[in-house]
C-alpha cells in the first residue's frame, strides 16, 4: 500500500463537497453500525508500509483515533478540515514519503468495535477512503479507561514497515484521547476480536514495548472538558511514556501536532514548523512539543537504530 501521491487540489475538492454532507453521509459505516470489512481486525496478519518508485523512502505513520464519547468529533474534524494540514505540513518539511495508517480505538469491555485498522496510504483518495471507513461508535465504558493498548498490539505485532526493516528508522505511532489505558485484554475477548487460535492475553507494558521497538510511540492527551489537567490521568501517561506524552489544549490542532512531532524528530526546528500555522494552533502545538523539541535540539533523541 502507499503507492499513490497526495494532491492538495484533490483534497480541496473533497473538502468542498463535505460542507453539505452529514456525518453519516461521510462515515458510511455509521448507518450499518458495524465495522467496515476493510477495517476489521479479525484474522489480521500484517499491514504493510513499503518503499516504491513513487515513495523510495517511506515513513510509516500510525494514527489511532479515539472514537468514544466526545472524542468521536476528532475524526470528523480531521476529514472535513485538517487532513490537508497533516499531509501538507509533512511534505513542506521534507517528510517526502509519508505513509499514513488511520485506525480507531474504543473500549474492549463495552464496545463492539474497540479496534479498527486501515492500510498505510499516501494518496488523497486512499487516505480519504480509509478515514471515512471508520465507524464512529461513540461508546466507551465511563470508567476513565479505553483500549489504547490495542493500538500497540496492532502496530507491534501486525505491521511490517520498510523504514524500520530496511533502514533502521522507526516509524511513528500516535494514540489520542482523554482517559487512561486498560492494563490488559483477556484471552477470550482477544480471540473474539482478532481471531487468534491460541488462548492468549495481553498487557500494556508488553505490547507497548513491542510497538516501541519499531515506532516512536506518542500519546496525545486531549486536555479539554471534564478531564482537563486531571493529575491522575496525566500522571498515568507520564509514568508510561515520559516526554512522549503530548498534552494538547486544543483538539482542533491534532493534525498539526502530529505532523510537527514527526518534523521535529527529523530535525526541523519547531519555530519553523509552527510559523505556517495560525496563532492559536501554533501556540497549542508549541506547548505540546516543548520537551520533545528541547530533546532534539540537545541531541538526546535519534530515530536511527543499529539493527
* Strands, count: 12
Number of domains: 1
Helix coverage percent of residues? 40-55%
Query: Low-confidence stretches at least 5 residues in length (pLDDT < 50)?
Result: 303-307
The DSSP helix count reads 13
Structural class: alpha/beta
- Compressed to H and E, one letter per element, the order equals HHHEEHEEHEHEHEEEHEHEHEHHH
Straight-line N-to-C gap: 24 Å
Q: Can you identify the CATH superfamily? A: von Willebrand factor, type A domain
Largest sheet: 6 strands, mixed
| Shape call | globular
Strand content: 15-25%
| Rg of Cα set | 18 Å
- Here the CATH topology equals Rossmann fold
Task: Determine and state the CATH class.
Answer: Alpha Beta
| Spatial arrangement of strands, main beta sheet | 4-3-2-7-11-12
Name of the CATH architecture: 3-Layer(aba) Sandwich
Mean pLDDT: 92
Give the structure's gist in a few sentences.
This protein is an alpha/beta fold.
Structural notes for this entry:
The chain has 307 residues and is α/β, with parallel strands linked by helices. Helix 1 packs antiparallel against helix 4, helix 6 packs across helix 9 and helix 11 packs parallel to helix 13. The strands form four sheets. The chain has a six-stranded mixed sheet with strand order 4-3-2-7-11-12, with helices on both faces. Strands 1-6 form a two-stranded parallel sheet. The protein is built from 13 helices and twelve strands. Helices cover 42% and strands 18% of the residues. It has a single domain, classed as 3-Layer(aba) Sandwich (Rossmann fold).
Amino acid at each position: 500500500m502507499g503507492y499513490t501521491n497526495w494532491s492538495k487540489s484533490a483534497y480541496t475538492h473533497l473538502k468542498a463537497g463535505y460542507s453539505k454532507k452529514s456525518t453519516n453521509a461521510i462515515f458510511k459505516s455509521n448507518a450499518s453500525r458495524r465495522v467496515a470489512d476493510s477495517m476489521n481486525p479479525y484474522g489480521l496478519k500484517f499491514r504493510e508500509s513499503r518503499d516504491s518508485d513513487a515513495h523510495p523512502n517511506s515513513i510509516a505513520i500510525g494514527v489511532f483515533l479515539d472514537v468514544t464519547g466526545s472524542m468521536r468529533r476528532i475524526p470528523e474534524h480531521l476529514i472535513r478540515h485538517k487532513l490537508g494540514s497533516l499531509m501538507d505540513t509533512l511534505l513542506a518539511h521534507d517528510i517526502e514519503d509519508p505513509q499514513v495508517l488511520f485506525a480507531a480505538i474504543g473500549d474492549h469491555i463495552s464496545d463492539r468495535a474497540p479496534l479498527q485498522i486501515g492500510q498505510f496510504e499516501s494518496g488523497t483518495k486512499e487516505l480519504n477512503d480509509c478515514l471515512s471507513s471508520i465507524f464512529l461508535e461513540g461508546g466507551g465504558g465511563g470508567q476513565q479507561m479505553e483500549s489504547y493498548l490495542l493500538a500497540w498490539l496492532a502496530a507491534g505485532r501486525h505491521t511490517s514497515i520498510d523504514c524500520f526493516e530496511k533502514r533502521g528508522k522507526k516509524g511513528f505511532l500516535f494514540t489520542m484521547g482523554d482517559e487512561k489505558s486498560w492494563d490488559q485484554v483477556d484471552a477470550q475477548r482477544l480471540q473474539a476480536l482478532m481471531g487468534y487460535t491460541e488462548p492468549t492475553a495481553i498487557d500494556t507494558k508488553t505490547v507497548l514495548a513491542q510497538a516501541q521497538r519499531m515506532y516512536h510511540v506518542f500519546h496525545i492527551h486531549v486536555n479539554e472538558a471534564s478531564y482537563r489537567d486531571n493529575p491522575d490521568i496525566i500522571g498515568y501517561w507520564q509514568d508510561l511514556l515520559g516526554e512522549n506524552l503530548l498534552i494538547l489544549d486544543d483538539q482542533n490542532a491534532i493534525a498539526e501536532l502530529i505532523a510537527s512531532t514527526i518534523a521535529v524528530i527529523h530535525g526541523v526546528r519547531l519555530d519553523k514548523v509552527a510559523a505556517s500555522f495560525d496563532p492559536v494552533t501554533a501556540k497549542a502545538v508549541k506547548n505540546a512539543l516543548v520537551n520533545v523539541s528541547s530533546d532534539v535540539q540537545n541531541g538526546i533523541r535519534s530515530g536511527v537504530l543499529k539493527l
